[in-house]
Write a sequence for this structure.
């Protein structure tokens, strides 16, 4: 068994206002990930270490942290990839830290709700009339954007969000776009004012790191630019065409 | 009952050197800064044109012949090309074209746009100079 040196940024507000580093030595096998190391520390070395986790297999999106400077799911980062180096683990950047690796997610949760992540119909048809049908092509237009697991890695990788937390940001816009592009949805006029407000999609300057760090292969950068294009063409149409091109 | 006591959260500010943290951020920053040279070149050119239209054509030609202008134009050309190439590539990423079942790749958009740029540049030169 090899031994990994893990350097964790600790923040224990009940002890003092300054964060500090703490190093742990963790024996590991080749199939162990950073989350396993954190669990080993918690069980054997230091029970006070605080972090979030749940599924251990890249589905729940709870265990995100900055691993060696890059936002990652700790359950998907193998320890052997850092062989011979100290692995630095910080709480997800751009979010306020509650304790150790636990960050405050409230801002993100509020943004998710703000874009109304559900199918909006102008008039609901009764269930007896059957489901709202969709072709495979129509599904393909938004499917990748529905794979988001709300792990917030994209927000941690986004310097725009880091500089201005009012920015709607990658995951929330990707989810908005997922519904905007859904053929069953009729809520464009409700969502457009939300995504196109000052701190909506137009704040994005295409850094693109959100799409690089996404563990589920979602491309939020693309969703944001597509939303910009939709908004711009919509605005032009409403000026040029009679009755706003409707 | 335990006392419900809340502790302050740790708010971290983005370090001014954040863009040096990884290769992608650096590339982004270079892409954005090169646009400055596009703007500067435009300003120099507008100034030159203003000389031309106000009648001091020799002053305009002298400005163009000035080694400093030539050096600056060369640097501006390199940066403008870098800026154009990165944006053409991004264009391919953001608006891929679907033909049948195949979707265009970003590098294809880059090549197509570069060719288009050469054609348009040639047309402009032809209209203004060669014709």
């Amino acid at each position: 068994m090899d031994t990994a040196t893990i350097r964790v940024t600790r923040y224990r507000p009940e002890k003092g206002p300054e964060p500090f580093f703490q190093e742990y030595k963790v024996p590991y096998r080749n199939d162990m990930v950073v989350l396993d190391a954190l669990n080993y520390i918690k069980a054997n070395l230091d029970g006070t270490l605080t972090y979030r986790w749940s599924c251990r297999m890249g589905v729940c999106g709870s265990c995100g942290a900055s691993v060696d400077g890059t936002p990652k799911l700790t359950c998907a980062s193998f320890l052997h990839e850092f062989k011979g180096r100290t692995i630095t683990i910080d709480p997800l950047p751009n979010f306020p830290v509650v304790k150790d690796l636990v960050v405050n997610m409230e801002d993100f949760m509020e943004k998710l709700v703000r874009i109304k992540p559900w199918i909006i119909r102008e008039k609901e048809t009764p269930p007896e009339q059957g489901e709202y049908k969709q072709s495979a092509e129509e599904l393909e237009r938004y499917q990748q954007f529905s794979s988001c697991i709300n792990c917030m890695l994209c927000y941690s990788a986004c310097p725009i969000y880091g500089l201005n937390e009012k920015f709607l940001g990658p995951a929330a816009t990707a989810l908005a776009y997922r519904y905007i592009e859904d053929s069953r949805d009729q809520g464009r006029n409700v969502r457009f004012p939300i995504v196109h407000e000052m701190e909506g999609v137009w704040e994005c300057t295409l850094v693109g790191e959100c799409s690089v760090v996404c563990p589920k292969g979602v491309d939020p950068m693309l969703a944001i630019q597509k939303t910009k294009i939709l908004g711009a063409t919509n605005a032009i149409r409403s000026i040029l065409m009679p009755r706003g091109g409707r | 009952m335990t006392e419900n006591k809340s502790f302050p959260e740790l708010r971290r500010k983005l370090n001014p050197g954040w863009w040096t943290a990884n290769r992608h951020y650096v590339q982004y920053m270079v892409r954005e800064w090169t646009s400055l040279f596009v703007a500067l070149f435009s300003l120099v050119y507008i100034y030159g044109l203003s000389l031309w239209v106000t009648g001091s054509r020799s002053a305009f030609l002298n400005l163009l012949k000035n080694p400093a202008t030539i050096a600056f134009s060369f640097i501006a050309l390199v940066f403008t090309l870098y800026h154009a190439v990165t944006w053409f590539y991004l264009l391919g990423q953001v608006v891929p074209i679907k033909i049948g079942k195949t979707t265009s790749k970003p590098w294809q958009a880059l090549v197509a746009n570069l060719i288009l740029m050469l054609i348009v540049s040639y047309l402009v030169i032809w209209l203004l100079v060669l014709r």
Observations:
- The beta strands of chain A are 2-10, 20-28, 64-67, 70-73, 86-90, 97-99, 102-103.
- The first helix of chain A runs from residue 34 to 45.
- The mean pLDDT of chain A is 95.
- The longest strand of chain A covers residues 2-10.
